[in-house]
Specification:
- By secondary structure, this protein is an alpha/beta fold.
- It has a single domain, classed as Rossmann fold, CATH 3.40.50.1010.
- The protein has four helices and three strands.
- The protein has a three-stranded parallel β-sheet.
- Helix 3 links the parallel strand 2 and strand 3.
- The chain is elongated.
- The chain starts with a helix and ends in a 17-residue tail after the last helix.
């Protein structure tokens, strides 16, 4: 994803969060990102009296964003084994010859 596309996604998500927050469409938003670009959005939503919980990788979490989380940050690194999709081994059916 290009940087320009990524910024477009960030802006769209921030806009949706703010719109739903202004309309009190949620009590708690869960932001799965550590990007500092969401800091002002998070602060504004908290200013509406709503809660924001942050879920992020340790290595990509901005300290300022972590400080704004309404609950302790959930680190994806810590829960990865619980949420990671494990693809099952493909089942190979035994080939049988023609029936006699």
């Amino acid at each position: 994803m290009s940087c320009q596309t990524e910024k477009g996604v960030d802006v769209a998500l921030a806009t949706k969060m703010l719109t739903h927050g202004m309309n009190k469409a949620f009590d708690t938003a869960i932001l799965v990102s550590g990007d500092k670009d969401y800091l002002e959005t998070v602060r504004t939503i908290k200013g509406f009296g709503l809660r924001i919980e942050i879920v992020a990788f340790r290595s990509s979490l901005a300290n300022e964003l972590a400080e704004e989380s309404s609950m302790p940050v959930i680190y994806i690194d810590d829960i990865r084994s619980e949420i990671e999709l494990v693809k099952p081994e493909p089942v190979v059916e035994e080939l049988q010859g023609p029936e006699e």
